[in-house]
Amino acid sequence: MELDFRKNPGILSNMVDAMADGVFTVDKSGNIVAWSSGAARITGYSSQDVVGKPCHVLEGQNCKGFSSVTDILANPQPHPWGICNQECKVLSKDGRELYLYGNVALVRDEGGNVAGAIGTFTDLTSFILDNEKITVLEEQTKSRDAFQQLVGKSQVMQEVFRRLRLAAQSDVTVLLTGESGTGKELAARAVHALSSRKDKPFYAINCSAIPETLLESELFGHVKGSFTGAIRDKAGVFQVADGGTLFLDEIGDTSPLLQLKLLRVLQEGEIRRVGDERGIKINVRLLTATNRDLKTLLASGQIREDFYYRIRVFEIKLPPLRERREDLPLLVNHFIGEASRAQQRPIRDMAKDAMQHLMQYAWPGNVRELKNAIEHAFVTVSGDCLTLLDLPSEVRSAGPTSSSSAPLLQPTLDENSERKRIEEALRKTHGRKMEAAKILGMSRVTLWKKINRLGIEIPH
To answer: pTM of this prediction?
Structure first.
């Protein structure tokens, strides 16, 4: 049986109403003439609500098409085929946001004149919202495993991430504490990157790496002739970082006199260059860090009490790697990816026994040591997978641990000998590292690194 829609228009109408998509027609003035059951179900507007009225129901936010039906009717030339794809976000009758996609085609009479238009639209709301939820969940998953350049999904690192976010929301002075290699500078950069100062400068200064006589000039600047070698005026890092963030690492190694000058900056927002009598107003957010026990230094007089409480407004402790072993596989994958991209080598995995040794090692150098171990492995690896033989010897020799908090490796005879030499030199100089370095025949920076690595207490 052949269907003749001209003789049985009701059949065509029933078929249109059975469609899941919405179908509508408008006259040449843009008023709605017909509105299908699908259109009513999607939008909530019945045919009685819209027929005879302009096509305002389909005019919505960020609309790219349906609100232009009247324009298409008035100026059909840009659409010679009478078709215009539509994307639109509109409100349903009950106020819900709808995401619609469809098209509009011009209808012409026998003389070729525009008589109106017919349109169809599909409801993509559930599809788009589901994808938005997936995107949000993906971002949340990423945020659980990484925070700026810090990586970790352990509970202790999640607490660090939480406190870093809080620190970024204010301008308080933050003290970052933790062993060497735990990522204190990365944490400082994360606070800056998430703060209102993110578009301003970020500077990092290691207070132990600069001789004490030059540190004041480095921080505050100097005027020409203020000391031997000051051949011109120089702006200090406080002045250069104006509006931004200054990170002072190893703050526990500064002298009480320099602490007093830093305290004045924190309280008055003003610096004074070496040799200058006038002050300069600055606006710098100060972040500090140390791997030393400041309370011990406070008790011994090496840290001023007023300075201690001023820099410790908000403290964030970075945990050692041995206390967050569940983060090791995540960190390993992260560093393998970094090294693969940097060296353009297709290495994507690590052998199981190699990973077991990484999990058993005590990591006295923390995350920095782990990164160095992966970079070491990239030097010796021959295939596309890092093996146990590619790891540094101290990691390969790591034995099983009885708990997640493994003891540090026992120092070697050479390390014991070096420790005694350094301790003796520090005793002779009453803790003055510059003089001790001269006695030992090494630079102050080298001495500082050895003191940190061997965990030597500086006498006072």
So the answer is: 0.58
